[in-house]
Structure to design on (629 residues):
C-alpha cells in the first residue's frame, strides 16, 4: 500500500465523504494501486492456471472500469470506512463493484497473507449459480493483482470432495446459500476457519429470501461470529443489497447489520426501470403465442434476445421445436434443471455471441449481466411488477439502450395493465403485423408427430404452463378456467388435448364450491323466511296477548263487582278423588242416578243352580224378595 493511499484513508476516516456528482472516476477514491490496476486493465490475461478458459470464455466479460455509477459513488466511500451497508438500487446499476472494491480493500489493509493467515476473510452469498459465477469473474478481473485467493462454491456432487480439500485455504468465497451451509455442516474445521470472517456480503437478498433460502441463511448466520458492536477495525462488516425492502429483508438487516448506512440512489426517481428502456406490450390469444414468437425472431435475426417463460418444460419444448425449425439464428436455453457446468457454459456462450436467442426461466432474471442485449421478450405474464422489472432489467444495462416486449392474453390484459400502470411503467401497446405473421402450427405438428421425445416435451409443456397459471396468487390476472385448452394443445402440435388431473380436481372443487355456495344461499333464504315468519308470529302473539290481558282484566273487574253486590254466585272447588271424606260433596250425583234407575222398568233376574245339584227355580218379585214356588 502506497503512502498516498494511506493518506487518503486517513482523510476519509476523518469523515470525508465525496458529494454526489456525475462522471466521477475510480482513481479519485482512496483505494490501492492493485485495485486500480485491475479496474483499468481489462485486456490483461488472468493469472489463473486455466488461461485458455479465461481468454475464450471471459474475454467478453472484461471491462474497462473508469467512471463510477451512482450506486458505486454513493456506496463505496461509506463501505471503505468500514460501515455496514443496506443498499437498494434498480437493476443494472453496478452493485457488484459497489461491494467488491470495499471487500478487496478491507482484506488488503488487513494484510492476511503477510500475517501468515490463510483462513476465510470474506463471504459473498448469491441467490443463483449464474450470478455467483458472474461475480466471481468480475472479482478475478479487478482482484488479480492482489495476493489473495478466491473460490467459487455453487453445487455439484462430484465437486464437493474437491472443494473440501481446498476451501480452508480460500480468503474470498463466492457461493450460493445451500452450498455454503453444506460446507459449514460437513467440512471438518471449516466453521473454525470462519471465526476471523471480516466481510459478509448478501447480494440480491430479497431474491435469496423469495427462493426459500431464509432458513438456510439464518443457520449460516449462526455459524458466523456475531458482529462486534464496537467501532474498532476488527469487527465484521456486512453489506446487504436488495432491490426491494420487504418485511423479511428488514428483519434480516436487523439481525445481521449494525448501524447501517441506507443507500438508495433512485429513491426519488420517477423511473423504476432504466431510462433508455423502450417498453411495449402485445395482446394475443394463447394458441397464437408460438406463431408470434417465431415471427418476432425471424424479424430480428441481427439482435441478441432473451425470451422468458414461466416453466422449465416450456423452455425445453420451445428450444427443441425451434432448433428443428431453424429460424436462422443461434438458439439456446437456460433453466434450473441443467447441471451447473452446462449452465455456466451456456451463459458464457450467449455472452460471447453478437446475435443469439436465449430461452430462459426466471433463473436468468435476477442479477445476471448479459452484455449488449437488444430485446427482452416475456411470452408469459410475470407474477407481479417486481418480476417484470427484473426481467426487463436484462437489457438497457448501465447507460446502454434496450427494448422489451410483454405478451398478454385477453383475459390477463385488463388487470395486468392496471397493475403496471400503477407502478408508473410507461408501456406502449402494439398490434401484430399481419404481413410479417407466420403460422408454424403445421410444422410443429409434423415435428411432434415424428419425434416421440418432442411429443412428450409438448405434453409436459402444456401441463406445466397450466399448473403455473393455476399457482399464481393474483387470480384477477391469471384465470386458468378461461384458457382455450384445445386450441393451445393444437398450437403445440398435439393431436389431442392432454388430460391434466389437477384441472379435473380443480373443476371438482369448483363444482363442490358452487354447490356449497348454492346450499349456503338456499339455507340463508330459508333462515330469512323463517325469521320473517317468526317475526310475524311474535307480532300476532303480542296482539293476542294484549287482548287476553285486557279480557282477563275485564273479567277480574266483573268478579269484583259480583262480590260487592250480594254474593249471588257460589264458588265451589271440585275435588275428583274417591276418599270417604268427600262423600258428602259427591252425594247429589248418585241420588240422581238412583232416581233414574227406579224410573226404568225392572227386569226379573233368574239364577240357575249348577249342574251338580238338583235344579230349582227361584223367583224374585219387584222388591227383590224371593217368592215361593
Amino acid at each position: 500500500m502506497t503512502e498516498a493511499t494511506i493518506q487518503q484513508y486517513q482523510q476519509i476516516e476523518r469523515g470525508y465523504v465525496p458529494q454526489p456528482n456525475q462522471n466521477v472516476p475510480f482513481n479519485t477514491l482512496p483505494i490501492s494501486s492493485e485495485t486500480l490496476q485491475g479496474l483499468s486493465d481489462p485486456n490483461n490475461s488472468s493469472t489463473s492456471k486455466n488461461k485458455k478458459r479465461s481468454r475464450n470464455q471471459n474475454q467478453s466479460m472484461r471491462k474497462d472500469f473508469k467512471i463510477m455509477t451512482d450506486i458505486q459513488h454513493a456506496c463505496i466511500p461509506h463501505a471503505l470506512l468500514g460501515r455496514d451497508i443496506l443498499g437498494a438500487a434498480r437493476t443494472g446499476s453496478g452493485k457488484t463493484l459497489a461491494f467488491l472494491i470495499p471487500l478487496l480493500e478491507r482484506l488488503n489493509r488487513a494484510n492476511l497473507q503477510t500475517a501468515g493467515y490463510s483462513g476465510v476473510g470474506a463471504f459473498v452469498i448469491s441467490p443463483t449459480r449464474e450470478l455467483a459465477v458472474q461475480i466471481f469473474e468480475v472479482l478475478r478481473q479487478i482482484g488479480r493483482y492482489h495476493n489473495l485467493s478466491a473460490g467459487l462454491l455453487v453445487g455439484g456432487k462430484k465437486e464437493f470432495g474437491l472443494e473440501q480439500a481446498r476451501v480452508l485455504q480460500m480468503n474470498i468465497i463466492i457461493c450460493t446459500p445451500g452450498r455454503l451451509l453444506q460446507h459449514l455442516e460437513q467440512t471438518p474445521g471449516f466453521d473454525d476457519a470462519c471465526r476471523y470472517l471480516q466481510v459478509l456480503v448478501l447480494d440480491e437478498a430479497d431474491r435469496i429470501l423469495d427462493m426459500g433460502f431464509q432458513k438456510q441463511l439464518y443457520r449460516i448466520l449462526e455459524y458466523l461470529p456475531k458482529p462486534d458492536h464496537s467501532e474498532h477495525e476488527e469487527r465484521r462488516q456486512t453489506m446487504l443489497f436488495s432491490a426491494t425492502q420487504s418485511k423479511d429483508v428488514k428483519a434480516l438487516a436487523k439481525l445481521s447489520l449494525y448501524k447501517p448506512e441506507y443507500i438508495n440512489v433512485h429513491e426519488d426517481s420517477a423511473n423504476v426501470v432504466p431510462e433508455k428502456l423502450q417498453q411495449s406490450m402485445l395482446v394475443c390469444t394463447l394458441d397464437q403465442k408460438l406463431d408470434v414468437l417465431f415471427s418476432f425472431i425471424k424479424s430480428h435475426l441481427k439482435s441478441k434476445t432473451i425470451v422468458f417463460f414461466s416453466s422449465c418444460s416450456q423452455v425445453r419444448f420451445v428450444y427443441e421445436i425451434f432448433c428443428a425449425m431453424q429460424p436462422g439464428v443461434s438458439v439456446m436455453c437456460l433453466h434450473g434443471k441443467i447441471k451447473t457446468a452446462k449452465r455456466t457454459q451456456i451463459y458464457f456462450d450467449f455472452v460471447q455471441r453478437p446475435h443469439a436467442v436465449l430461452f430462459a426461466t426466471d433463473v436468468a432474471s435476477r442479477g445476471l449481466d448479459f452484455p449488449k442485449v437488444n430485446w427482452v421478450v416475456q411470452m408469459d405474464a410475470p407474477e407481479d411488477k417486481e418480476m417484470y422489472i427484473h426481467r426487463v432489467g436484462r437489457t438497457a444495462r448501465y447507460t446502454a439502450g434496450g427494448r422489451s416486449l410483454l405478451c398478454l392474453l385477453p383475459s390477463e390484459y385488463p388487470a395486468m395493465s392496471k397493475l403496471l400502470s400503477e407502478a408508473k411503467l410507461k408501456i406502449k401497446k402494439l398490434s401484430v403485423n399481419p404481413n410479417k405473421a407466420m403460422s408454424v402450427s403445421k410444422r410443429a405438428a409434423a415435428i411432434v408427430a415424428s419425434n416421440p421425445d418432442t411429443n412428450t416435451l409438448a405434453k409436459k409443456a402444456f401441463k406445466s404452463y397450466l399448473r403455473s397459471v393455476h399457482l399464481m396468487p393474483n387470480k384477477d390476472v391469471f384465470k386458468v378456467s378461461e384458457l382455450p385448452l384445445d386450441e393451445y394443445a393444437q398450437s403445440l402440435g398435439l393431436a389431442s388435448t392432454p388430460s391434466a388431473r389437477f384441472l379435473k380436481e380443480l373443476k371438482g372443487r369448483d363444482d363442490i364450491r358452487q354447490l356449497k355456495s348454492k346450499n349456503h344461499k338456499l339455507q340463508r333464504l330459508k333462515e330469512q323466511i323463517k325469521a320473517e315468519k317468526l317475526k310475524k308470529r311474535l307480532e300476532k302473539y303480542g296482539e293476542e296477548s294484549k287482548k287476553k290481558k285486557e279480557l282477563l282484566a275485564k273479567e277480574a273487574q266483573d268478579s269484583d263487582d259480583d262480590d260487592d253486590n250480594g254474593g249471588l254466585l257460589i264458588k265451589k272447588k271440585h275435588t275428583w278423588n274417591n276418599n270417604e271424606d268427600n262423600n258428602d260433596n259427591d252425594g247429589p250425583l248418585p241420588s240422581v242416578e238412583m232416581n233414574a234407575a227406579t224410573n226404568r222398568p225392572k227386569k226379573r233376574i233368574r239364577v240357575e243352580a249348577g249342574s251338580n245339584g238338583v235344579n230349582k227355580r227361584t223367583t224374585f218379585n219387584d222388591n227383590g224378595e224371593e217368592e215361593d214356588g
